[in-house]
Amino acid sequence: FFLPLGTTMDWHHRVAEAGDNQRQVTFQVVVKGPTSLAMAPVMRRILELELPQTVDKLVGLAEHS
User: Fold this and answer.
1) How are the residues of the chain apportioned to helix, strand and coil, as percentages rounded to the nearest 5?
2) pLDDT digit string, tens, across residues 30-61
3) Which of 9, 30, 32, 59 has a Cα-to-Cα distance from 44 of 20 to 30 A?
């Protein structure tokens, strides 16, 4: 995602085999750029609402693949 003044937010997710019919889901959000520190509180509030749903969807995909 592109944020104000050249700041970017990248979402990285991965579903990996973990053996014995198990999968590991990892999720990382990286914010870079000149307004990243100022945007942190705003983005944190937004992500607190959205991130759990997103991770739940990834886990669902991992469980059914």
Assistant:
1) 50, 40, 10
2) 889 999 888 888 888 888 888 888 888 878 88
3) 59
